[in-house]
Amino acid sequence: MQRIHTAFRIFYLSCLLLGLALPAVGQVGLAVASGLEQEGESRVHVLTFRGAVTPVLGQYIVDGIEAAQASGASAVILQLDTPGGSVEVTKRIVQDMLASPVPIVVYVAPSAAQAGSAGTFITLAGHVAAMAPGSSIGAASPVGGQGEDVGETMEAKVKNILSADIENLAARRGEKAVEWAVAAVQEAAAATADKALELGVIDFIATDVADLAEQMDGFVVTVQGDAVTLQTAGALVQRLDLSPLQQFLNFITNPSVATILLTLGSVGLIAEIYNPGTFIPGMIGLISLLLGLYALGQLDANFAGLAQRVQIGRAHV
Predict the structure, then answer these.
(1) Which residue from 43, 129, 209, 251 could staple onto 202, CB 3.0 to 4.6 Å apart?
(2) What are the C-alpha distances in Å from 216 to residues 76, 77, 252?
């Protein structure tokens, strides 16, 4: 019994440290990477993200902005491939991007990548928006957390709110871009890279990051109300990867993995109820349930403040 109690305490402390470590690990990795550049050399920081829009992406972007600001980078390029995600998480990401003191470039890539649903909002929130040939954007109509319909009344409310949000994001891109953006929410409209460029939804079509950096050199953007001319031609490209912990948390956001975790969590807790005092099934069930809820965007990754940081977001885009 003493061994079980000791194991439980070790497991609890490990989870506590894991939750506290998430922001720190990402920030350390970015800080080390940013320190590799030579002072005075033009550079861009490149973040690469593939998967659902979750708090992992939000923290990744914040870390990237801070690293770019500290190193004096000309811009942060977010290479994005996402099918969508939580509305609440997307709103926080958009707010952080709009408040960024460093220009953020959202680049939907590689070829065949998508900025679906929530990814459409994130792309339009960028100071610069670009796509790779063969990529797609749009279909931003709201659905439930599991992809189901949200009900006629709720759907109308959410669509109207999201339409207003996306109209604000697309306003600077012209009437055609606004019309398409609203249709992406109201009618699940989508567009190829060529169509998006024609409508003004994006600024560039680029084959890779180097091509994008060359094309957007001299491009003027508005950052925190001030006009900024990008100087990216020949810039040093510094890639800042997800930390191992962030990669793990991003992996479990796969719907299949999340379902398995929730099932395992439920079974573990039921086993603990029917066999009280064993602790092992309960511990496994609890951590699986927490990871499953996080994977669905219901929990922040900071397990240390779990009780205070539960977030409910039923609608997804």
Answers:
(1) 129
(2) 13, 11, 35
DSSP 307: G
pTM: 0.77
197 HSE (CA, 13 A, CB side): 15
- Is 157 annotated as catalytic? yes
Phi, psi dihedrals of residue 35, rounded to the nearest 5°: -80, -5
Pair 79, 107: CB distance under 8 Å: yes
Q: Which residues contact 74 (CB under 8 A, 6 or more apart)?
A: 42, 43, 44, 103, 230, 231, 232, 235
Q: State the pLDDT at residue 143.
A: 67
| DSSP reduced 3-state for 138 | strand
Q: Considering only CA atoms, which of 59, 73, 16 is closest in space to residue 303? A: 16
Percent of the residues in the chain that have a pLDDT greater than 90, as a whole number = 55
- The H or E element spanning position 164 is helix 152-170
d(CA 226, CA 101): 10
Of 42, 74, 117, 136, which residue is the catalytic one?
Answer: 117
Q: Is 316 helix (H, G, I), strand (E, B) or coil?
A: strand
Note whether 234 and 248 are within 8 A (CB): no
Reply yes or no on whether 91 is catalytic: no
Q: Which ranges of 72-134 would DSSP assign to H, the alpha helix? A: 87-98, 118-125
pLDDT digits (tens, 9 = 90+) for 157-192: 889 999 999 999 999 999 999 999 999 999 999 999
Report d(CA 219, CA 44) in Å as an integer. Answer: 14
308 φ/ψ angles, rounded to the nearest 5 degrees:
-90, -10
Residues 106-155 pLDDT 10s:
999 999 999 999 999 999 999 999 999 999 999 988 765 555 455 566 77
Strand partners, 44: 75, 237
Secondary structure E strands in 99-232: 104-108, 114-116, 128-131, 136-138, 143-144, 190-192, 204-205, 220-223, 226-229
Going by their DSSP bridges, the two strands 315-316 and 143-144 should be labelled as: antiparallel
Asked if residues 79 and 273 have their Cβ atoms less than 8 Å apart, the reply is no
- Which residue is associated with the tokens 């491009």? 219
The CA-CA-CA angle for residues 274, 275, 280, to 5°, reads: 125
